[in-house]
Amino acid sequence: MSKTPAWLDRLGAGLSRLGARLEERRAAAAAGDNGNGAGDGDPGTVPPDHVPPPPAYAPEVPARPHPAEAIPWGMRVAAEAGWRLLILAGTLWVLMRVISAVQLVVLAFVAALLVTALLQPTVARLRRVGLPRGLATALTAILGFVVIGLVGWFVVWQVLDNLDNVADRVKDGIEELKRWLLNSPFHVTERQINDIAKNLQDTIGTNTQEITSAGLEGVSVMVEILTGMLLALFSTLFLLYDGKRIWQWSLKLVPSAARPGVAGAGPRAWRTLTAYVRGTVVVALIDAIFIGLGIYFLDVPLAVPLAVFIFLFSFIPLVGAVVSGALAVVVALVTQGVFTALMVLLVVLAVQQIEGHVLQPFILGRAVRVHPLAVVLAVATGGLTAGIGGAVVAVPLVAVTNTVVTYLRAYGRGQVSRIGPAPHGATVVDLAPTPAPPAPKSESSPPEGEERS
Predict the structure, then answer these.
(1) Which residue ranges have biased composition labelled Pro residues (predicted)?
(2) Model pTM score
């Protein structure tokens, strides 16, 4: 046999050593996996799901961020606020639809709340004298409704008694106004005045059907008004008689976690509403008396009905003063002439300026102070939503909401004692007697003997 070449021997020996090294590495890797709990099989085998670590020279690959972290912070905040605002807007829309469906009932109940806020102190005084609750409620309601009925009867009597005189004065005033226009620097001719009068007569004759239908609609509106007045009457009687239990029953509808805050906010809201109603009545009465006296001394007819009209329209902020003052000026213009109308305008403006800058801040005070922009927006929204009734209740609703939100925000921060003294007075004690919960103590609370700011 021929001898094997030396290079084949060396190649075989090298392959044998390489195979031995591979077996050693495979055994070491299997032993390491079994020691870390990654594999349970034969130490000589590598698990199929084993992923070897990357070599040291491989570049680092950053992990992908969470999807929420990839969105900018401002966009995340806007999205969070956006869906919450959409839910609030949907809730308000549904609420407004429900209120529109039962608008008459809602306005009647709100009117009952306003009247109750005005009459409740009288009931409380009668009960302190010793009268039972039912008798005190009956006497207060009868007295209030008798006063309202007498005022209405007196107004109707004055209108009917002065109707003929007013008609004659209107004719004379129109003739005087016509002469003033002819002699004025506006270069108005008699033919133009006659054309205007003829066009007005033609318009009234052409639209007779529309006027008739408007009259029929007015009849239906009067029926709705009478229905609302009856609802407000019954609601007022029950609120005066049983307001305490109605308030306590309403508290049971609130979740127990929020009940202490609502129990403290309720009396403060009622105090704000009472202050608003009583202050508004006083201001409206002063407006009616002084403007009515000015109209009376200027010899304008229907002074008393105009004064009552001014009193009623004073409950509509901003708009009521303009409408009632304009009506007084128009009546003075067509009955007494231009000079008297200008004097009535000066009286109306003077009284309203005193009211806006002196009477309202002094009488209403801080309890119902609302920013003028909020008043304008509230009156406009209430008028568009529910007409005159909505405009009347808009401002007290905003004032009460402001009081409730302020209290709840302070209560949530544990600072109830810093927003003012506890509610006091007969109205609050009788209608909303639930006391406010004690303020939680904190390190910054003053000692017991010191006065809190």
Answers:
(1) 45-63
(2) 0.63
